[in-house]
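Task 17 of the worksheet. Students: predict the tertiary structure of the chain below and write it out as structure tokens. Keep your answer in the requested format; marks are given for formatting as well as content.
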Amino acid sequence: MHNDQLGVYEIARRVDTKSADYCALSDRIWAMPELAFEEHRSVAEQIALLEREGFRITKNVCGMATAFVAEHGSGRSIVGFLGEFDALPALGQVSGITERMPTTKGASGHGCGHNLLGSGSALAAVALKDALASEGIAGTVRYYGCPAEESGSGKTFMARAGIFDDLDAAFCWHPNVVNEVQSTSFLACIQARFRFTGHTSHAAVSPHLGRSALDAVELMNVGVDYMREHMASDARVHYAITNTGGDAPNVVQAFAESLYLVRSPHLPDTERLFQRVKKIAEGAALMTETTVKAQIMDANSNVLPNKVLQEVMYENMRRLGGPGFDDTDYAFAEQLRKNALTNEEIVASVALYDRSLASQVLHDGLLPMPAREGVMMGSTDVGDVSWIVPTVQCSTACFAIGTPFHTWQLVTQGNLPAAHKGMVLAAKAMATTAADCLRNPDLIARAKAELKERTSGRRYICPIPPEITVDNLRAKAAAFA
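Model answer:
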């Protein structure tokens, strides 16, 4: 094999050749935001494009209608690109303006950039496939269409079913305000519904006969609030009251529900913290003479970064350079910061990396690899993949520095040229690193050895109980709504 086969600049050229089609795909998905497990049109758009590229498609993976695998080529070395494409509720926003203007009332929106994420990963898979075919090199390229990252943990269900077991390396990325190889871990998490059942009664005539489920929800919240003083500082517990039992104050509420999200840097610690939350719920039920049922809805393992693959990806990104923003990109980013972002948001967006970046409008460089591995205060179902197969991720600058995730300010930028440029850079970073793995089997072997050392050889155990399926979760949620 010649040294220039599957080289950085050849792969980059192939990404550029196909980039227009996948930027357009990203924009179509941006314009049809679909929530967790409902991404039917987004999936159809991706499948149509990948079938045109000659990929073999497996639909309805793990019984999930919006999960699929696209595969091309053959050979024992198998590399996979992870895609996401789910949106968030109530974040619909007109594109390219610097004030809040929903598309329609209550519309969903791509507030985490997953329209870019899936399209960029698909672009990387296609570019690598083209390079392999041109050089006559054996290797299997897969794109994993993974639903419900925001709420539902599609990859966790896929991991439990063994979908990633035969992969040699996995590649992913996330739109961001900076360009970096992700070297941090992410928090493991468990999300569960707590459903309280009491006894209804007239709140004035016979309050003594009622047992309030809503009181139990409120007491649980108070108990968890007191617990926060006595848990690790890097753990998190969030909640939402999802059903108050009704709107009538003169009725003792017989049903009420809350949704809790428990996070910690390591899954065993998360599981122990979740058990404490369950005990508080049981205590609240005891105090109010109600009953409570806890049901895990989804869960993620913490991410295991792979230094072997990180070093390769970093060198590739260093050679590739930045997204290449132009004056128009800078002008819009500057206007957005002026009209819609606070100084606190700007500093917070780069505090994890380098506060001096707050003086920049767009990041067109590459952050250095940190000396120590940190923890990102978020969660992702990529973590479950990383326990099974060596996994590497990058972030690329698609948005103005200061843009918070899960906001309309991010949505308004999600289909602009600057976002496309960040997406294309990510595709190049992933495809070139995957090419290095195919070109150098020793690289895969070293990455796998590192993973084995990090896990101490422990087999992956899915944090979602085996009896929990997507179908029964949705059926129970609908029944209680």
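Marker's comment: The mean pLDDT is 95. DSSP finds 14 helices and 15 strands in the chain.
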